[in-house]
Amino acid sequence: MQRFGRRGSGVGDLERPGDVAWGVRGGSRVEAGGGAGAGMPDVPSGLPAPGELPALPDEVVTTTVDIAGHLPAKLAGMRAHATQVTIWEGDDGQRAYTLSDGVARPICTVEQFTLASGRVDPASVRTDLFAGVVG
Fold this sequence. Notes:
There is one protein chain. By secondary structure, the protein is α+β, with helices and mostly antiparallel strands. About 15% of the residues lie in helices and about 20% in strands. The chain has a single domain (about 1-115), classed as 3-Layer(aba) Sandwich (Rossmann fold). The chain has a 4-stranded antiparallel β-sheet, with no helix packed on it. It starts with a strand and ends in a 20-residue tail after the last strand.
């Protein structure tokens, strides 16, 4: 869970419940990534069955942040935990990781979040988790 402040008396002060966000994965991203894993012939772990990976309905995702420019740092961070996670990269740029359950999961170039208070405008998905944060 990520907490951040807005115009409070100090960093981390919350003025409204929307200031709490949970990291999530929307169903369409998970299914697209899981299907893409079939194109990685060298993935030694099992591929997920449709619906096997945890995901939330896309309509509860309130923020989608493009992290493509930070992917090398994300991969380095994951590799630093080699006893807990294994990383594979295909020749065409596809990436997957597996945990102790032996099921491959996609490594996405976006991170998704949902606000604890829910979506303010059902037609909008934010692209900046910290927009408006006073710092």
